[in-house]
Structure formats: structure tokens, C-alpha cells
Write a structure and sequence with these properties.
The structure holds 2 protein chains of 2 kinds. By secondary structure, chain A is of the alpha/beta class. Helix content of chain A is 33%, strand content 20%. In chain A, the strands form 2 sheets. In chain A, strands 6-7-8-3-9-10-12-11 form an 8-stranded mixed sheet, sandwiched between helices. Classes of the chains: A alpha/beta, B alpha/beta.
């Protein structure tokens, strides 16, 4: 550690409302995000709730338009409240972020919570040297001399694996490769030892060999700093690599939530089964044809009335019409372990289907 | 020339494609070359898929475009159906182009937004002056049906379709004239996973139906494995290894192929966390000034393990056969023969070392391995020297 455990109040004392009692480190409760557009109201996040314990890594998995990035932006307070209608509660360590003033959230952002984006150029200013940008991030939150901040920046650049850091600290973003820029962004995100780090598709723009470097780095830094991490991705391989827990999102809702091992070994939601069957896998024999999910994702303006996956679900007929008319809740599967699923299928039927699909998948093991 | 009965449709020999770097003076002169493709050989048989994998900057897309003469190769030979293309004029190429087509990565930019789906898919018929039985419209609607589009949408515009459907439009256009070779450049990397599987299945079915040969360029090794019969691994303009699918994934003999495979996470938490990952240090060197000898030696774990043999830095390794259609460009590939992937002592040691190196790397990192400062500006513009 760089020895900055006791944090100073950013920009003077900020009065923040606190709640009493024990709360998980992060709790998102009934989060709704809607964007009014000319074509109608876009339901980007439609009733998302989850909790996350300190020091754990949660992966939010989903396809484009599933609401995973908007959920992250809501937590970080990055949504423009003039454009987005946000409701619900987001508790970060006894602070209700949605009840705070924008200035208060801004004081927390970069200090107690930070974010890594898919495209590093979106968070690095092209006109300023990378070192100066990180120094600014330090001085925005702590009263540290320029010399000390520069020394700290140099240390951090070395930690994230930037070779010749003493020279690169004065480089401009365009002088670095994609992998190096991603490291700089990670260094900037971690410089104030945030307790919560959200990584939104952190390696999607990178080559696999660089992706491997970055994933190893995030895992290592998490152990070192004890950071709580939310990784947003569409890649089930990355999830298997880094996550303790998984939330599968589809059509603006969480469809299934369990530990990583449970999700891969005993998935129950037909959408999760569909995802697992549709990806080509390096660890299974090639069978010629894949098993895709039929159809296309729903429009966020006209979400289906019942289950959002109903139009594409091969088993929705088995719910006696319920999937078409009634919105299913995210409920315990009843299997004894901590596992939630949003599905109208009777539990026995669901497990029977899951066993069959997973059995088929495992039978082609390489 | 070829009758399509599993003869080679494509024969590429010694293909080189260089892009000159011009000085920014009043009278520009050539001050350097980007050696995007630097001497590669491959063949593709009828109905076969050759997967071309590599990281960004490896030259895989330039190689694919050079095969179709969309980029003029600097040297070497490209034969399609026995006809040498490199010396042909544009007008001589036109009839050859009927046998080839291309599917692009970005289904949003590959279609003209002001043309209807009908006119986009009928373009190949008009350009090649092909008059199908029953008329062009009928043929186009049959194609739309075949690729999973509603034929009634003939008069719609691309913006009315989703990404997956647009890729289907691009595929319908590509297979309209029953080409012998289709070059697919990252055809599914812009699509969501559930849609990706639909498109891969469609490509698979069309290949069976029309006996099309695919040159399939992609960076996703799991996708390439799904579709390819043979796979060639590119790095800095060179093919480092080429072998049938199964061999490449179970018994790769080039240290680069092994690192590439170990870097792909598998969607199985138990297995994934047991795997040893060979983390390569640094980035791909600049193709303006590639390393001497073996282009991979600056990042090679086997080179380190063997005590930096001089041969790797002085002598360029040629592709050598290792039986069963496997060729490997490494002086020391014998070291890896019989060593299963992820289990060789050398790899494990390299992986441990690499893991330990993360976070402790500092100024002691050899500069040669990471010449990335300034590399980007050089690629896009000329060095001032």
C-alpha cells in the first residue's frame, strides 16, 4: 500500500445522510432508469436489485441493450438527471447515493468509487501528459504536494506494469499503445484506493494477449487493495476467470443471480442456458452447428408485458400463458444455495430442462 | 482450370504487401515501409475454411484484402482457380471477381444506407451482367429467404434492420453469384453472442450447400476454431504456424500459438482457474522496423527459457513440416514436440515468471520489447528524420 488508508474529507467537510444498521457494502434496490425519447420511453433499467459484499467481484453479464452499463452509470452517478429518470435506492456503505447532491457524488467519485471504461481514450484527455492527469486526480481529492503526487503517480504506473514508467509519465495518451492506455486508466482509477471499482468491458477493445495481462492485473490489484469490483462484460470466459458472483441481465432486468460456480454448473434460467449453448468454446469438441437463441432481443421501448425473454424462450409454452401476461419476480430457486432466478417455469420442470441442456453441452467435452 | 473437386481454389506464394511511408516535404519521398504482409504462403481447397488468426497489426486483414486484389500486393503470387491475379489489370480482374466476394466486419458501414435491400443484393447480378432464370428480383428474394430474411422486405432500407439482420444482407450479397471463395473479415465480432451463433450457423450451411471456400479472418480463437478446417497464425506479417484445426488447438508447436491459446479464458470457472496462462510481456513491435531474425523473439518465452540463443536474433526461421500438414516457423519447435498444451515445464515456469513480473516491472524492462512510445504516430504519419 502507499499508506493512504485514512482518507481526508474531499474539498472540505461534506455532510452526507447516513443510515443506521448493518448494510451490505453495496446495495441496489428497485433501480429504474428511463430515458424519454421521441419514439417513447426507453426502459434501460427495469427494477434491478442486488447486494455485494466488500472485497468481492460481481460480474454483470449481458448483451448490448440489456441495461448493464446503465446500471453501472447509475451507481457512479454518471447519468444526466435532466435526461434520465432514475428511481430506487443505491446504498454504498450506508450512503444513499441517489439521495445525495451531484457535488457530493462527485466528491465520492474518484475517491471511494472509480470506473474503468472500454475505450481508454474516452477518459484520458488527449492534450495533457498522462502523469499530469493522474496527479490532478490525486490533488482533486487530497491535499498533497505536486512532488509527492508525482512520486505516487510514478509508483502506481510501475504497479500496473508500465515499463520505463519514469519516461512514460510524461507521455501523451496517443504515444501509448491500447494496452498501455488501459493500464494508465487503471492506474488513474486506483490512485485514490477506491473501495468500489467498476470495470465496463475493460478488455473488449484489446487483443487476447493484452486482455490476459489486464485481467491478471485487475485480479492482483484486487487482492492487494481489497477493492470491491463490478465487471461488466458479455464474455462468459472473462466471467469464469475473475468473478465470485454473477448477475445475468437481459431486457433491462436481472434474470439470474448466483455464485460463479453455481451459474456455470447449475444454471436454471432458459436465457442463461441459451447463452451457454450458443457460444463456441475452446474446451469442447466442435460439433459443426451451434445452438443459437432464436430471434432478436426486445426493444427497450416496448418491453414484453410478462417475462422479457418470453418471445425467444423455447419453453415459455410450459408456463400456461403466465410468461406472456405476468412479470416474474427474481426469487430463490429453492435448491438450498444462494441462487435467484426470474422464471415462471415450475422449479422441477426448470431443473429438468437445465439438466438436459447442460448434459448435452457436457457430452461434447473435448 | 480447376473443376472444383477439392482442388486448390486459392494458391498464395511469397505474398508481400508493403505500404510506403512518405516524407512530409514538398516533394514526398519514400522514407520507410510498413511491412504489413511479409512473405506468406497458403492454399485453400474448394469447400474448405482457412482461419487466419492474429492480434491487431499482425497483417491478417491486409493479407485477406491482398488475395482479392483490393490492396495491390508488392510481390508474390496469388492464383485463384489457376489464374495469376497479381499482374492483371482491373478490366482483366472483373470476370475473376465473379468467383470471389467478401463479408465485412461492420454491418452498419458495409451497406449503402440510401439503397434498398433489394438493390444492394442485386448489385452483383448487375455488375457481372448475370441474368438469372426468373429475373433478378426473384433470385434476390430467394436469396433473402435463404439467409433468413423476409423476402417482403425487398424495398426496405438498411437502417430498418438490426445488426444481425444487416449481416445477413451482406451475406446474401456475398453469395449471390455462388462464388468459389468468400473472404470473411471478422464477420461476427460486432454481433452479440446470441446472434453470433445464428450467423456462424448460416455461414456453415451455405458452405455445405454451395461448396464455398472461406478465408476466415478473426481474432476470436474460439470462433475460428468453430468454423475452420485449417488455421494459420499470423504475427507481424508472417505466418508462424499453420495446421489442421485439431492439431493447432491440441498440439501447437510454436511458442506464440501456445501463448495465444492460453490467453483465451474458457467459460468454465473450475477449469479456467486451473489453467496456466502464458502472459506475454509488452506489445507487438512496429511493422516498420520488425525485430531481426525471428520476429517473435522479443516476446518469446521459449527464447528466454533456452537462454536467448543467438540464432533466434540472426536467422529468420522458415516454416518447417512436422507431419500431418503442420508447419511451424521456429528454430526450436522440437522442444515442444510431445509437450501437451499448458503442461510443459517451460510454459509453467514462464507463466509463473510472467505473473510475478506484473506489478514489479519497472525501468529494468528491456526497451526493445516495448517500442510503443511513438510507434503510433509513426504508423499514421512519416517520421521526420
Amino acid at each position: 500500500m502507499i499508506g493512504r488508508l485514512n482518507k481526508m474529507a474531499p474539498g472540505g467537510a461534506v455532510e452526507v445522510p447516513e443510515a443506521a444498521g448493518d448494510r451490505p457494502f453495496l446495495e441496489v434496490k428497485d433501480l429504474f432508469v428511463k430515458f424519454p425519447t421521441e419514439d417513447g420511453l426507453v426502459h434501460a433499467v427495469d427494477g434491478v436489485s442486488f447486494t455485494l459484499e466488500r472485497g468481492k467481484t460481481l460480474a454483470i453479464v449481458g448483451e448490448s441493450g440489456s441495461g448493464k452499463s446503465v446500471t453501472a452509470q447509475a451507481i457512479m452517478g454518471l447519468l444526466d438527471r435532466r435526461q434520465a429518470q432514475v428511481s430506487g435506492e443505491i446504498w454504498l456503505d450506508r450512503l444513499n447515493l441517489l439521495a445525495l447532491k451531484p457535488a457530493q457524488v462527485q466528491a465520492l467519485r474518484g475517491e471511494r468509487m472509480a470506473m474503468i471504461f472500454q475505450d481508454p481514450m474516452s477518459s484520458l484527455h488527449p492534450f495533457y501528459r498522462i502523469g499530469d492527469q493522474i496527479i490532478e486526480a490525486i490533488q482533486a481529492h487530497r491535499s498533497v504536494s505536486k512532488t509527492a503526487a508525482r512520486q505516487e503517480t510514478l509508483e502506481m504506473l510501475k504497479r500496473v506494469g508500465i515499463p520505463a514508467a519514469a519516461r512514460r509519465i510524461d507521455a501523451y495518451p496517443h504515444q501509448l499503445s491500447g494496452g498501455m492506455r488501459q493500464r494508465v486508466m487503471i492506474a488513474m482509477a486506483l490512485i485514490n484506493s477506491p473501495e468500489l471499482l467498476i470495470a465496463d468491458e475493460p478488455t473488449t477493445a484489446l487483443d487476447v494477449t493484452v486482455q490476459a495481462q489486464i485481467l491478471e492485473l485487475i485480479k492482483k490489484l484486487q487482492v492487494e487493495f481489497g477493492t470491491t469490483v463490478i465487471v461488466i462484460t458479455h464474455d462468459l470466459g472473462i466471467v469464469a476467470d475473475v468473478a465470485d458472483e454473477v448477475a445475468v441481465m437481459y431486457g433491462a432486468r436481472i434474470m439470474e443471480r448466483a455464485s460463479t460456480q453455481e451459474i456455470y454448473e447449475h444454471p436454471e434460467m432458459p436465457y442463461t442456458l441459451g447463452l451457454l449453448s450458443s457460444i463456441p468454446r475452446m474446451d469442447r469438441d466442435v460439433t459443426g452447428r451451434l445452438e443459437p437463441i432464436r430471434g432478436n432481443p426486445p426493444s427497450a421501448i416496448r418491453l414484453p408485458a410478462g417475462c422479457v425473454f418470453e418471445p425467444r424462450c423455447p419453453y415459455s409454452g410450459l408456463t400456461g400463458g403466465l410468461a406472456k401476461t405476468t412479470r416474474p419476480e427474481l426469487l430463490p430457486t429453492g435448491s438450498g444455495v444462494d441462487h435467484l432466478v426470474r422464471c415462471h417455469l415450475p422449479p422441477e420442470k426448470r431443473r429438468e430442462i437445465a439438466a438436459e441442456v447442460m448434459g448435452k453441452l457436457r457430452s461434447v467435452k473435448a | 482450370m480447376s473443376d472444383g473437386q477439392n482442388g486448390a481454389i486459392v494458391q498464395v506464394r511469397g505474398l508481400r504487401t508493403y505500404f510506403p511511408i512518405k516524407s512530409r516535404s514538398l516533394i514526398p519521398r519514400v522514407v520507410g515501409q510498413v511491412m504489413a504482409v511479409d512473405g506468406i504462403d497458403f492454399t485453400i481447397d474448394a469447400g474448405e475454411t482457412l482461419g487466419l488468426v492474429g492480434e491487431s497489426g499482425s497483417g491478417k486483414t491486409t493479407a485477406a484484402r491482398s488475395v482479392l486484389m483490393l490492396v495491390k500486393p508488392t510481390a508474390g503470387s496469388v492464383k485463384i482457380d489457376g489464374d495469376e491475379l497479381t499482374r492483371m489489370s482491373q478490366s482483366q480482374l472483373r470476370p475473376i471477381r465473379r468467383k470471389t466476394s467478401m463479408i465485412f466486419q461492420d454491418p452498419y458501414n458495409a451497406l449503402n444506407p440510401r439503397h434498398t435491400v433489394g438493390s444492394i443484393i442485386s448489385a452483383p447480378f448487375e455488375i457481372q451482367n448475370v441474368k438469372p432464370e426468373g429475373g433478378v428480383k426473384r433470385a434476390v428474394q430467394d436469396l433473402m429467404q435463404r439467409v433468413g430474411l423476409n423476402p417482403e422486405h425487398y424495398n426496405r432500407y438498411p437502417n430498418e434492420f438490426s445488426g444481425g439482420q444487416r449481416q445477413r444482407i451482406g451475406i446474401a450479397r456475398a453469395v449471390a453469384l455462388h462464388p468459389e471463395l468468400v473472404v470473411c473479415d471478422e464477420p461476427v465480432s460486432a454481433l452479440d453472442v446470441s446472434i453470433q451463433a445464428q450467423i456462424l450457423n448460416l455461414l456453415h450451411d451455405l458452405q455445405k450447400e454451395f461448396n464455398i471456400a472461406y478465408l476466415f479472418v478473426a481474432h476470436d480463437l474460439a470462433v475460428v476454431r468453430q468454423v475452420s478446417h485449417r488455421i494459420a497464425v499470423m504475427y507481424l506479417g508472417h505466418i508462424l504456424e499453420s495446421a489442421p484445426r485439431k492439431t493447432i488447438y491440441t498440439m501447437p508447436l510454436h511458442p506464440y500459438t501456445r501463448s495465444l491459446l492460453s490467453a483465451v479464458p474458457v467459460p468454465d470457472p473450475v477449469r479456467q482457474r486451473q489453467r496456466t496462462r502464458i502472459v506475454l510481456q509488452g506489445d507487438v513491435p512496429s511493422p516498420i522496423d520488425p525485430p531481426s531474425g525471428c520476429v517473435f523473439h522479443t516476446r518469446c518465452w521459449l527464447y528466454e527459457r533456452l537462454g536467448k540463443p543467438e540464432r533466434c536474433t540472426t536467422e529468420e526461421p522458415l516454416l518447417r513440416p512436422f507431419g500431418g500438414d503442420q508447419v511451424v516457423a521456429c528454430h526450436f519447435a522440437e522442444e515442444l514436440v510431445g509437450q501437451p498444451v499448458g503442461e510443459s515445464a517451460a510454459e509453467t515456469a514462464a507463466a509463473t515468471e510472467a505473473a510475478a513480473a506484473i506489478g514489479t516491472l519497472g525501468d529494468d524492462e528491456p526497451e526493445a520489447a516495448t517500442p510503443d512510445v511513438g510507434a503510433h504516430s509513426q504508423e499514421s504519419s512519416a517520421p521526420q528524420a
